[in-house]
User: What shape does this take?
Amino acid sequence: MKERLQKVMAHAGIASRRASEKLIETGHVRVNGKVVTTLGTTVTDADQIEVNHKPIHREAPVYFLFNKPRGVITSASDEKKRKTVLDYFKHQVTERIYPVGRLDYDTTGALLVTNDGKLDYLLTHPKHEIPKTYQAKVTGIPDAADFQRLQTGVKLDDHHTSAPAEVRLVKKMGTDGQNALMELTIHEGRNHEVKKMFQAVGHPVEKLKRTVFAGLKLADLEPGQWRPLNKREVRDLLELAKGELPRENK
Assistant: This one.
């Protein structure tokens, strides 16, 4: 798969993406021995890239599952100086990693962190329909009609109706049993999708946690903890991202 030259440079630690664009425009970058000054240039793993006549080093891919706590930004940095997910990896991971997709500031749970740009693209592109499972504490108890709407698709606005989802009641909550813990599996990645879906059926989300992302389960990871993926998990993740079933399901 091809990637933009400035993105590859940024991932290799040469400079930020914007600074890499300036290096390209001012003639400091060569691809396969030829100076490149066009920002739209794309490259593959087979291409040889030099900056100021020095070959760039491409990092080996790394993959981590992180349990994002509440009140943490899903970003590499934040202009307001709020805590980001990458703050939890400082001084422990040397690669230029970043989160795959986003979780809201007040949403907790499973987040993949990697330096694999190809995988990032495959997992976040809507056409690949990567499954994500959430547990949501909602106001009130959804009834059969609410379940039907969530399972077949809820109209969220004039331009968008949610795709069919898998939904079940985990348990009733509260001293009077008037709230519900719901589990919802979706295959979309739109902003605030789960919150909008429950809002549309009259049961606003009070708390939200993503328990599974692309088959990766939090298990015993506490908020703020992370772990590397094992070889089997990486293999299955890559197969899923390419639209293939994990081996045990073939």
Q: What stands out?
A: The helical segments are 5-11, 17-25, 117-124, 144-152, 193-200, 231-241. The chain has six helices and 15 strands. The chain has three domains: 3-55, 63-127+215-249, 131-213. The two ends are 25 Å apart (CA to CA).
